[in-house]
Design brief:
By secondary structure, this protein is an alpha/beta fold. It has helices at 2-10, 16-36, 56-63, 89-93, 126-133, 146-160, 167-178, 181-187, 194-198, 207-215, 228-233, 235-245, 270-291, and strands at 46-50, 69-70, 112-116, 138-143, 223-227.
Amino acid sequence: MKTANKLESLTKGVDPRFRKPAWRLAVRASRGYGRLTARFRVLPDYLILGTQRGGTTTLQKHLTQHPRVKSARLSKGVHFFDVNYERGELWYRSHFRTGSGRRIVGGPYPMVVGEASPYYLFHPLAPSRIRSTLPDAKLIVLLRDPVTRAFSHHRHEVTRGFEDLDFEKAIEAEPSRLAGEEERIIDDPGYVSHAHQHHSYLARGLYDIQLRRYLDHFPANQIFVAESADLFRQPEELYERLLRFLELEPYAPDYFEQLNPTTGSTRVEPSTYARLREYFAESDERLSEIIGQQPSWAEIRSSDGKH
């Protein structure tokens, strides 16, 4: 993120009419340099896998306040193990710092490098790809109430221009939109499914399925699972636990800030809300068995439909 800030500072004095082209040129030059020096760059130590609209941007920002933690060079996430895998490992390496940059000037400890790409949790091929490339990586998962996550996801896609159906119609259309998409992704690893990535409002909330995929490839002690609600209710405690998981010394950030909050509101029929609570009930029970405790949202069974 610091690299992005440096690039931004380079365009501060540029005429506003040319600022965007100058920014794009600076980014292109930085990425080109990254590709040229890719073989000397490191792979990440940790990945924030998801879930989408679960606070991954905020968590990555919190982590990178620690003096030993660094993100990808130009963005919080690279999306290599989901939609860019065909580009190869050198392309992935180009997004991180060089091996010599792992050392903190004046300090004895190496930097810890990571990225956050929330489609990793849901993509069916990501676990095996990550295992092949980063077998020792520490994996971080933030889980949000699947009902409110679905509402937020829908608003997010509408805002981005990827959705033109209202919420009820979108979840009604979801089964037909996703039909056969996961199978095609598995059969054709180069295939990128727009519907699977952008219209999976309910499917992404079936956390037990997604976590089981990762547990089929990684030992449980390499996976850190928390609720996104804890990130906002008690960030200090979650941050402390996460630093222990990453084997980092304690550190107290100056502040904890929520990024990319959900804006606007969606009026959801109470019957739809109740139906979704029931839809996720069995998955939540299986999730409880996996994580060893009942998720906080599992007891919620009614609402007035405003979210």
